[in-house]
Amino acid sequence: MKIAVSVESTNDLPKELLEKYDIKVIPYTVILGDNEVKDGTISTSEIFEFVKATGVLPKTTALNEFEYTEYFETLKKDYDAVVHIALSSGLSSSCGNATRASNNLQDVYVVDSLSLSTGIGLLAIYARELASQGLSAKEVAEKVAKRRENLQVSFVVERLDYLFKGGRCSSLQLLGANILKIRPRIALKDGKMGMDKKYRGSMSKVIAQYCQEILAEKCTPDLERVLITYSSATPEMVKEATDACKSAGFKNVYEATAGATVTSHCGENTLGIIYFNDGE
Hints:
Helix content: 40-55%
Largest sheet: 7 strands, mixed
Shape: globular
Radius of gyration: 18 Å
Number of helices: 11
Number of strands: 14
Order of helices and strands: EHEEEHEHEHEHHEEHHEEHEHEHE
Structural class: alpha/beta
């Protein structure tokens, strides 16, 4: 059985991995004022420039049922079945729309990732590996849904400005955080993002502490691969994360630039390490 593994543009995998694992992508639409562009065609620097110029965050629109139906039907022309891994239902209505579209088609399976960014990407890579082993699309979808519970997805945010603009923190929290140089950790739990820890200090030192603590908390990593995912980052931040991941024993350490979804929520200098926490 020839299986298409599919994701939305919120997966944030670098092009090399999308091509290597033959992962298909349907893009979100990003709205910047009066302009609409496809996610993946706009850089993070352009998003930052827009926010600085307007004081307004970009918006991403959920894909509707009709768009998914057309997309799945197109994939079915070249593949026997489709396994689509959707952005968390706790963050977008797209997953529900994709599921309704799949109900009217044969051999199309939608998995709620309960994740975002390269957490989705890791699930997609896993799906391709399963499909390559000869499993049916239904079996692939079931195993992917089961493994999503073991994803470690978190980020450290340099400033609360974007979270404030998005209504996720108060003006008092914003002022206090900026004065005291508080760097919140954003973690994904039950398919939703929330602050679960606060750091203080320069971002390079914070990233080193964050990596050390996450790897201690989520201490049974699958060492095959880890994604260092950021909206933007200084060389020092990337080095701290890379060194920590290599010291932990990861065989493959990849860098990935976060797309419009993470960038619009968290802003500049947001970085996280993403991996499966189900190793030996």
